[in-house]
User: Fold these one by one.
Assistant:
Number 1:
Amino acid sequence: MNAPINQDTLSVNPRSGKMSPHTPDDLTITIRDERFNRDSQPERWWAGEPFGTAWHNALSATFPRGEAFFIEAVKAHREGAPPKLAEEIRAFVKQEINHTREHIAFNRLAEERGYDIKAIDKRTEQLLALTKNRPPIANLAVTMALEHYTAMMAHEFLANPQHFADSDPEVRDMWRWHAVEEIEHKGVAYDTWLHATKNWSAWRRWRVRSLVMLMVTMRFFKNRWIDAMMLLRQDGITGWRARWGMFKYLTVSPGVVRRIFPAWLAYFKPGFHPWDHDDRKLIAKYESDFPDAVMPAE
């Protein structure tokens, strides 16, 4: 009997030249050069209620600087990557550039509706400034963990229509488009990590990525909570009403945090890989709904 593959022990898939045998050989990362929210005029609570609006506005406010950070963290380790991974890094960069552009447009829309998005952007800039003197491999580990968060939430947003049931249609389409591409490139930072740490032991690789995920989780929810509370105050929602409303939104209905918990826990499994769960059927569903949204990669 063949021994099971330990994903934390680097090996090359001879069919694809990739550093991870779990990434599908036939995966194609497609550049969908879509534009949203240029002429949209949604209500202030574009999600139909204040808590979903605040949570997603808080997320979006961090994306322009956050995705630039992801790009640089991955690019810093592309030297010597197998051809397939190098190609996927290039596609990842193009997708993230487009995401940055669209979230700048979305953030501008939120500002026009009276929200102080620039305050969150400024705090994100200050937090990212603390990473400047860190080893590049540390920034890649953080990127890998945050990419897992974006992939988990992307899956949930596409799989559960409840999240955007009452949303402005164009805003909803923007988030769905972003979610599709996050699923599609969810293994790129992880495979880049495997390439960059090919001389590490399996134990060291697992220990570092697990500790970084715990740290990222604590900071992610702490900072997004602070940002969401700030945005709710701008709607006149404060105190226990704000805290209970946001807690219920995240954990009860639609409950994105509760729903992604099993996928978050899976990250700590020895041998974990983002493509252990192949959810490309959600991408196919999106493309069947929006056949004109697809622009083949160059």
Number 2:
Amino acid sequence: MSESEPLVLRSPANPTVRRLVRLRDNRTRRREKRLLVDGWRETLQAIDAGLDLVGLFLPESGIPQPRHDSPPQKRTGANPGQAHETDPRISIVIEAAKSSQTLRVVSDAVMAKIAYGESFRGVVSEFVQPDHSLDQLKLPPNALVLVLDSLEKPGNIGAVFRCADASGVDAVILCGGGSDIYNPNAIRSSLGTIFQIPSAVGCEKDVARFLIEQNIRLVAARVESSQELWETDFSGSIAVIVGSEANGLGPRWQHAEGVDIAGVRIPMFGKVDSLNVSVSAAVVLFEAKRQRCKASIDQRRH
């Protein structure tokens, strides 16, 4: 088979196609330890993060050109196996697939079955799911950690990862009901940053024990706290805990392993009494980063 005439996967009943469709289910992803990624930017982020690429699926009709200001537009008549001459992300991803011999071409009908949602993003890729146990999480000195407690909406999880990446968080830990970080909506709303930040998943008790054993101070974002954000010390190794917009943290994360957990509140000056969790996380994290950067600058001056 020549590179100009790739084998095209056409049957929706093909075992590979049926397996890919099943991978859209969280339980199947966990059982098979695989995940699917939609989009060139997100696929490149996963490759750059060192995830093991096991399949790159391109449409037979050609490679759609990603655009930043509008949904992807389809280019018809192009050889799906040829590197793209305009967007460097496409060339890098395709070359990575060729070098690992994971490039596959599928009919448009098959692509419609394996892609997520109504808005096709140009490519579907399959990766081996990384280990997200607490044991594998290695934290640097003076780590800034974000803990997400019971965030069940994948879009919120992805948006928080995006904020965490922008604010320079060292790790994100998920606990409670929201632990499906490879939901397609989570990946999409994170813009692929979900692959770039070290992360782990565990139950509340195990996460608390892990952080305290690492000598990381815990601070919980609570609307009922008397301690305002601007009065809170975010120096040293610290973990910021946030809950869902609907339920907050409730009675959780007040004590852990015999240690009282300090609360922090974002002051509200308008009529609303809450913010979306990604906005709340961003406000707290950037204040933490501001304090830490200022302390570093002051230390260098002296």
Number 3:
Amino acid sequence: MAKTPVIAIVDDDEGVRTSLASLVRSLGYEAHTYESGVDFLEQPPGDDPACMIADVQMPVITGDELQARLNASGRRFPIILMTAFPSDSVRQRVMAAGAHCYLGKPSSGDEIIRCLEEALAGHGPR
């Protein structure tokens, strides 16, 4: 029996974490939420998620910093980065570092679902 994919949601905004977790669960996936990149990094690396949705602007460790630390430690899985303050320079940097999607906030549920399903299906970055 196939294991249900786990989606990690890393965002310092509780409302965003809750709504993304509800969306992820409505698609039949398991959602694990973290209020910071530090919280996520404290989890054992052998239990990596199938995909991560992370905010860019977070205290202590930003989403793109979290992505860089995961890459540096060899932890590779699709990452969807979201931000209320999109910029071309950050978009180019995170996409070059392997992000699957870079979305502005708010994003439509359909847009998030499309990115998530493409990431889980192994399709290339958007």
Number 4:
Amino acid sequence: MSDTPSPAPARALFDWLGPILGAVAIVIALAGQLGFEGRVRAYLLENPQLVQEMVQAGQAQQAALAAEETTRRAQANPSLVAVDPRDPAFGPADAEVTVIEYFDFQCPGCKAVAPEFLALMQANPDVRFVFRDWAILDREPGGTSDYAARAALAAHRQGRYLPVYQALLAEPALSPETIDQLLVENGVDLARARADMDSAEIRDQVADIDATAQALALQGTPTFLVNGRATESIQPAAIAEAIAAAKAR
């Protein structure tokens, strides 16, 4: 993202540096109460789970704050979460609940939750699921994430988006060559796809997805929004709960 840190490094920084600083602050406070560092050190060595608990609490707090900010921005500017006609979208166009996923095909978290997320999609045929291919892990044109995003969008033009989405996220080590192979294996006309991938329309679409992600202050992938509300967790169970809550409103 130009000269500013990209969302992926920024999220990693917040995920680890914040909790560590919080843990240090608690240690300092304990040191003041107990009188000397040795006793604090001994206490933490006897109870190492406390550090992990502090880190987890810090991460949960950061996720909640990030989700709150994204939700605030979406509510202030609903166009950011309006379904773009170019978006791969599945489910009724007039659905009462819409789920948007921002993801990167190289993102380990995206790969981990994809099977359950697709199962969740099948279990909710009355929900509209929207996919936004946000290439952030290598943002330069021609990078693998960028290539995969454009390839999937080209596959969408041939009605093969979901098979390609599933295949790309199931592949542990993507490259332009493996992406081309997966396109062909999933019924995509490669020559046509390559022409579409290089078109101004698809390149503009990838750029527009990046712009909306930045406008929503997204911190990384995957990010899920249910009726314009960002979820704090990426776990499919949490997405299912958010869908159920949206249906009940």
